[in-house]
Amino acid sequence: MRSWKAWSKKRMANEVCLRTLDLERPWLLEQYQSRGGYEMLKKILTEKMAPEAIVEEVKMSGLRGRGGAGFPTGLKWSFISRNAPGQKYVVCNSDEGEPGTFKDRDILRYNPHQLIEGMVIAGYAIGATRGYNYIRGEFWEPYERFEQALEDARSAGYLGENLLGSGFDFELHAHLGAGAYVCGEETALLESIEGKKGQPRYKPPFPAHFGLYGRPTIINNTESLASIPMIMEKGGEWFADIGVKNSGGSKLFSISGNINNPGVFEIPMGTPFSELLAMAGGMKDGHKIKAVIPGGSSAPIIPGEQMMELNMDYDSIAGAGSMLGSGAVIVLDERNCMVKILERMSYFYHEESCGQCTPCREGTGWLYRVVHRIETGQGRQEDLDLLDDVASKISGKTICALGDAAAMPVQGMLRHYRDEFQYHIDHKRCMIGVG
Amino acid sequence: MTTTTVKDKTEHFTPEVRAEIDRWIAKYPAEWKQSAVMGALMIVQDENGGWLTNQLIDQVAAYLDMPSIAVYEVATFYSMYELKPVGKHKICVCTNVSCMTNKSDVIVEHLEKKLGIGFGQVTEDGRFSLKEVECLGACGGAPMMQIGKQYYENLTPEIVDAILEGLE
Ligand SMILES: Cc1cc2nc3c(=O)[nH]c(=O)nc-3n(C[C@H](O)[C@H](O)[C@H](O)COP(=O)(O)O)c2cc1C
Ligand code: SF4
Ligand code: FES
After folding, report:
1. Which of B118, B115, B113 has its CA nearest to residue B127?
2. A263 to chain B: which residues are within 8 Å by CB?
3. Which stretches of chain A score pLDDT less than 50?
4. Is the minimum distance from the CB of B135 to ligand 3 under 6 angstroms?
5. How many Å apart are CA A243 and CA A57, to the nearest integer?
6. CB under 8 Å to B123, separation ≥6 — which residues?
7. pTM of the predicted protein model
8. Residue B59 neighbours by CB under 8 Å, 6+ apart
9. What is the distance in A from the centroid of ligand 1 to the CA of B89?
10. Is A257 helix (H, G, I), strand (E, B) or coil?
11. Strand B145-147 versus strand A328-333 pairing type
């Protein structure tokens, strides 16, 4: 555990998933190898490292799933019984659909080999010999880049049969989505690979027992898997120490919105938000920070002043009633109307609901329609209570977390910006500028 | 499972298209040919000028030994499959939060005016169509759009003009 002053001294950036970023054409195999890439895999295979030791190392690293839920990766891997007979799978989630998130795209574009190495190590650790990387359909360029990397890795003997003479086989392919946010949900993603529409499955059974093609499967986010080679190379403790308590490692933050230098920053967990904002060039055109969505659009919004006091780690953000999620930080200045922002977000969840459960299918429609009528000056006095009510009737009552993802931003907005919504209802217009 | 009415599946598609679909089939376990359905639909859609006809959907079903209804389900579930004709250049503009707060509305208005069409429409000459899309995972380059397979980021009306001029 470190205080943020200690962090300031460390000031590390781009040392895990983006460690090749400063090189020219960093995605090439030679470039990755020039930074020690695939050395760890070689070591594991030639020394025939005990798979349990790998899972232990990952547990020690404190790595928590980077896809949004923050579930400890090592623990997830330990749920697989590696000696169970038959096929097992490693699946990578490169669906990257949570609005505000654009980090996995950079891993695919700039350091695809590290993801491949991480997936092979994961396969070795859980006894799986096949893997799939599910890439969202719009990511055509990253997909091609990744496919090329697969080919190069295959030629170099890092994929295929009997890797480096170890007797271990691992084959890896990329699957391409076709536009559906819900396919980022792990069981919908598995359905989608199986050639079906992407509707989430009931859990349990969890993928560790009944996953892809009904076989034991681990599914992890791109960033989680791409972190593995460095965790193995430098040790779980090294990784844990980069971050803070309960939030091991560094993390890729995708920061966008009304700022000067939006982009992806790989920095230690626990970095003060104010530092991240400074790295991202600060507020655009001298505007004032109004609010921040700290972890993708489903993370409840946090007022700017409060956010300036928080650190970018799970506990700090959770303490403010929100979540770190996928690390997608959307910064909004004082010109933004919160009703309009929520209207757009509610539209999104309504559009993307797969329609399987009534509270989500109907509830997201209600949320959108009510926020829309408030935004367009048709709001009624009872609408704010109605929003609270609908949101609470979705939360926790659906098959997958898309329902919660739709409800949480509504609850966050009403918690902090109720007056803005009330003003819209009372005056039939926006309190911001001309609106 | 019933297979389809189409008799000889090798009658469909050009050899090139078949080879491409076969590349997808090879990625999955032999008994899970249907995993290739998403890839196959995308290939035949591209080949058909960007949209899927019922006949193409049936042909994909036949080729993959799937019931047609299962392929229809997939084709209607995912937003990137088009069931109506689209322009030669399908322009997809993101209007989600990061793009919205970076004035995606100005980009949308500019495109609508320039092309004389709204979302979901195709220009008379068939060259362009407009589509509103959700966050494309490129919010750092907001506002952004996708045309065909290519992303275009940090847009202004002037940049949009230059991009459209550069298209065939
Ligand atoms: C609606 C919905 C969308 C999701 N989208 C993504 C996504 O785009 N990428 C991702 O990695 N995880 C996404 N998740 C989380 C996954 O279900 C899953 O928790 C994650 O892939 C597990 O990997 P991790 O533990 O390494 O984070 C989504 C979850 C839900 C409910
Ligand atoms: S919560 Fe929504 S998206 Fe998830 S399974 Fe239910 S209807 Fe589908
Ligand atoms: S909001 Fe437009 S790309 Fe993410």
Report:
1. B115
2. 140
3. 1-9, 434-435
4. yes
5. 16
6. B87, B115, B116, B117, B129
7. 0.96
8. B6, B9, B12, B13, B44
9. 32
10. strand
11. unpaired
